[in-house]
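Exam revision sheet. Question 4 asks you to relate a sequence to its structure. Input first:
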Amino acid sequence: MLVQSALSSLFAGASEVGVAGTFQFVFSGQEHFWVSPPACTEVNPGLHPDADVTIAMEASVFLAIMRGQSDIEALFAQGRLKIEGRIGLATLLPRLVGRSLHAGDGAKVEMDRRYPAQARFSEQLSARLDMQGGIERRCARQLSVEEFTTRYRTVGRPLVLSSALDDWPLAKMSMGQALEHFVDVQGISRHGDYAGHAFSSGREFRTTRILDFVTEMEQAAQVSGGEPGAYMGNNQVPQQWLDLIRFPELFDRSLYITPRFWLGPKGTLTPLHRDDTDNLFAQVWGEKLMLLAAPHHREALGSWATSPDGGLEGCDFNPDKPNWEDFPTARSVDFLPVRLGPGDLLFLPEGWFHQVTSLSTSLSINFWAHSLRARRETEIG
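Answer key, structure tokens:
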């Protein structure tokens, strides 16, 4: 009954989170429950004949998650939580857990709905910047935290730091050496036209061991039909790698969330979008090309939000296939190219739009940090 009660608590706020589909839970191979939000949030015992997604774990693991004592993504990477079926639906589980632990926080969200993008304080900052010279590049050893804070972070100015990963053990390893630390670690990869279905639960996701993903990636760097190669994007950095990387000292450690990794072949693509936190993006292997656009171009780029509270925002304007008829004011947008190679660290302030393309087989690790400017924005009122 503890598990069934916890499931009831988990899905009580499903309509607020915007989750829609049938979830089948299997606990310890013996207890089975299913629930079909938002039409019905009642938890039913047994097996559903046509569940969208099946999630299996030990009952004790699930109860620890619901107490906020265990992290879903870390458990998944370790193989202690297994997912089959519609993986995109399962990726909403962390949002459900967060809502359960912090009931009443945030506005109601509808799955895959586009909300109006709201103005941000970062737009006021970027409108004042002179970016005619492009994105500045500095040597990491020659920049103090104080100068970074006053000249770049406070005013929301992007910056590339070179030789920034010199103290990373991971940066000195070959892919084969690094993968020895990934034994039995699994991740979620994107397939098919994931760029065309960006930021929606309709993207094609698969779960796979990282070692198997790399083997498949080496066999076929580009899938047929002109679609980008499969991409293991936005996965939590596994515990095995935390000793092989270094958190940048440009922010206080308490401001960082758990770092994420992005692994894939040449041609992977993340379409134009913007985040709601500062980002330190480390290029470990390979090269990537980023196209940046300043925050104050929000309306010109046809930006839309994934939540009524804002957060992640996509764009209807595609800089690779510009539709000037629908977006005439996008002609005034200066897209700033940034080429990142091994050892580079990009500071991408909150609110800056960016499109990311892999120019070769690539591994990147990014550190999202809660922006201090967001706090000052509240103070400015």
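Marking note for examiners. The longest helix spans residues 2-11.
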